[in-house]
Design brief:
Blueprint lengths: L6 E2 L3 E4 L6 H9 L1 H4 L8 H18 L4 E5 L5 E8 L8 E6 L8 H17 L5 E4 L4 H9 L3 E8 L2 E7 L11
Antiparallel strand pairs: 1-2, 2-3, 3-4, 4-5, 6-8, 7-8
Helix pairs in contact: 1-3
């Protein structure tokens, strides 16, 4: 198995998931505002399966999303990182924030660190983010990351927008 690195930014730690993340992860997926763009709210046992899937992506692909932890409180703040399960059109940079941590720029900071790592460590030359057309918050994060609309695709019967990230030589991570 690939050793999962820990990435540091000025305010965040991107680290492997642990079982201790489950309560906050479950709260994230039970929040109607969050879950509406992810298939709807789910219960704690379904959240465990989803958390296990994110963690297991590292075993199956050699990379995956990171748990995002707030430096100052040491609390689980969300997730961000590279992702490409079967059926995905291309490798993706994904993110999601627990409701307690929204509005601080954490999603942009975490996704930027994860994208920089994917470009540098995995040799990715491109990445996308798949965003529900009604998800203005995630669309604005993608824009701050320099990602631009690049068509649509259908996943699980739903049309989502493809947002193309700039190539590695056009990016810079100040962290």
């Amino acid at each position: 198995m690939t050793a999962i690195p820990t990435l540091e930014t000025s305010r965040l730690r991107l680290r492997p998931f642990t079982a201790d993340d489950h309560p906050a992860f479950a709260a994230y997926f039970s929040d109607e505002r969050t879950a509406r763009f992810l298939g709807g709210p789910i219960d704690a046992s379904d959240a465990w399966r989803r958390l296990s899937g994110l963690a297991g992506h590292w075993v199956l692909r050699g990379y995956g999303p990171f748990a995002v932890e707030d430096h100052s409180s040491r609390r689980f703040a969300g997730y961000a990182g590279p992702w490409c399960p079967p059926g995905w059109p291309e490798p993706e940079i994904m993110w999601g924030l627990h409701p307690d941590f929204r509005g601080r720029g954490y999603a942009t900071e975490a996704a930027l660190a994860a994208r920089d790592w994917a470009y540098r460590s995995l040799g990715w030359t491109t990445a996308i983010s798949l965003i529900d057309p009604a998800n203005d918050t995630s669309r604005r994060v993608a824009e701050r990351l320099g990602a631009r609309p690049d068509g649509d695709t259908t996943l699980h019967g739903q049309t989502v927008g493809i947002h193309r990230h700039p190539a590695p030589h056009h990016t810079s991570n100040p962290n």
